[in-house]
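Give me the fold.
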Amino acid sequence: MATQGNKSGDPGSSIKNPEQYEALRDDGMSKEKAARISNSPTKKTSQKGGNHAPYEEWTYDELYDKAQEVDIDGRSDMTKSELIEALRNH
């Protein structure tokens, strides 16, 4: 069985919508998130998440707490911008 992100750059047969997957990856989305979206069973699935404010509007402490919740390594040494980038690419 093929896996996502093999060495040839082909996302593999486990991706149900490879064109959407590649477009999401080109936009900077993580492999895991792009795979989840492109494998979703409905056409109504949005690329955007929930209704929370953009990370840029969060305080450093809120971003740090979220990074801690999702177990991002090196978060204690990150700036606000780095936390935002790490959370978006998690």
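Residues 55-88 form one domain.
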